[in-house]
């Protein structure tokens, strides 16, 4: 049986009514943790159950921080506690080239809104956050290559070694990339306001002709990391997204060669969660980076 309520037994509709102060007239399960809930005055919202400590607070803070930039569309947060997040439902439409260009402009503006430091969590967000199902620590730093190695690549490399996805003798190639990051990272840039988990599944092409972003792992980081995530798992009309982005905020020379370096982080996260196939991709990218 799919578990829909939380550990206390509270059902999604009950949680929504409690957090919004509005009666519920219907609900429809979307998955084990997501439920579409209809409020009595018509709006439909999404109730998301968070099982990991701090996960709901991290996501709610991230959505509000992204929204505060006034750049990309994100669902409104209607309420949350430590177990439940209630957000706006986004009706979806079809991807098209013109929307992709506008999304590129908006993403550039989001990044340009900045962050206090690399690794800075959203205001009100916990230091112990998540990227998908994996724990992610938001520890501020001022030097991107060092911060990226210490707090994004190496923790997941160790986790992938521990679970057998990366064999002990293979870890050295990724460690060498980390040592060379000061020369591989390109020109220094200020901290950008990142979505942080920008794979295609978190990009919704709305029925309103706008792109909406969901499920952030928001933090201060390097803007090329978000773009590398779009490359890694595919995005409709990605070339037009990049056209719009670069028209608004040109990228530093050599950014194409750095995509693989930025992909090490999400690939190692996936290696920790899902195993050897993603580890092999990360190792291949590390070897390619060292060959440049």
Strand order of the largest sheet: 1-2-3-5-4
Shape: globular
Using DSSP, what is the number of strands? Answer: 11
Structural class: alpha+beta
Series of H and E elements: HEEEHEEHEEHHEEEEHHHH
Write structural notes for this entry:
The protein is globular. The mean pLDDT is 95. Helix content is 45%, strand content 16%. Strands 1-2-3-5-4 form a five-stranded antiparallel sheet, sandwiched between helices. It has a two-stranded antiparallel sheet with strand order 6-7. β4 and β5 (84-88) form a beta hairpin. By secondary structure, the protein is an alpha+beta fold. The longest helix is centred in the last third of the chain and has 20 residues, at 255-274. The N and C termini lie far apart (51 Å).
Chain-wise SSE layout:
Elements: H1 12-20, E1 24-29, E2 34-39, E3 44-49, H2 55-68, E4 77-80, E5 84-88, H3 97-112, E6 128-131, E7 134-137, H4 144-162, H5 171-184, E8 192-194, E9 203-205, E10 211-213, E11 219-221, H6 223-233, H7 238-248, H8 255-274, H9 276-291
Antiparallel strand pairs: 1-2, 2-3, 3-5, 4-5, 6-7, 8-11, 9-10
Helix pairs in contact: 3-7, 4-5, 4-8, 5-9, 6-8, 8-9
């Amino acid at each position: 049986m799919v578990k829909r309520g939380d550990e206390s037994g509270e059902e999604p509709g009950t949680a929504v009514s409690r957090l919004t102060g509005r009666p519920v007239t219907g609900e429809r399960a979307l998955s084990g943790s997501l439920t579409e809930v209809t409020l009595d005055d018509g709006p439909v919202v999404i109730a998301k159950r968070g099982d990991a400590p701090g996960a709901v607070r991290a996501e709610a803070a991230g959505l509000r921080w992204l929204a505060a930039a006034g750049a990309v569309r994100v669902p409104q947060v209607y309420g949350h506690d430590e177990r439940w997040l209630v957000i706006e439902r986004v009706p979806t439409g079809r991807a098209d080239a013109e929307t992709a260009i506008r999304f590129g402009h908006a993403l550039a503006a989001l990044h340009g809104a900045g962050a206090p430091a690399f690794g800075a969590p959203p205001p009100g967000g916990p230091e112990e956050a998540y990227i998908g199902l994996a724990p992610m620590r938001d520890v501020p730093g001022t030097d991107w290559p060092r911060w990226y190695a210490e707090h994004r690549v190496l923790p997941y490399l160790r986790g992938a070694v521990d679970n057998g996805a990366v064999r002990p003798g293979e870890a050295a190639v990724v460690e060498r990339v980390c040592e060379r990051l000061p020369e591989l990272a390109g020109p220094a840039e200020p901290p950008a306001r990142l979505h942080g988990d920008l794979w295609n599944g978190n990009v919704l092409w709305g029925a309103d002709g706008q792109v909406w972003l969901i499920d952030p792992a928001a933090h201060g980081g390097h803007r090329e990391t978000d773009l590398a995530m779009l490359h890694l798992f595919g995005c409709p009309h990605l070339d037009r997204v990049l056209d719009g982005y670069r028209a608004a905020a040109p990228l530093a020379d050599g950014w194409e060669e750095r995509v693989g370096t930025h992909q090490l982080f999400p690939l190692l996260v996936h290696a920790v969660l899902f195993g050897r196939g993603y580890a092999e991709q990360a190792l291949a990218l590390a070897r390619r980076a060292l060959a440049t």
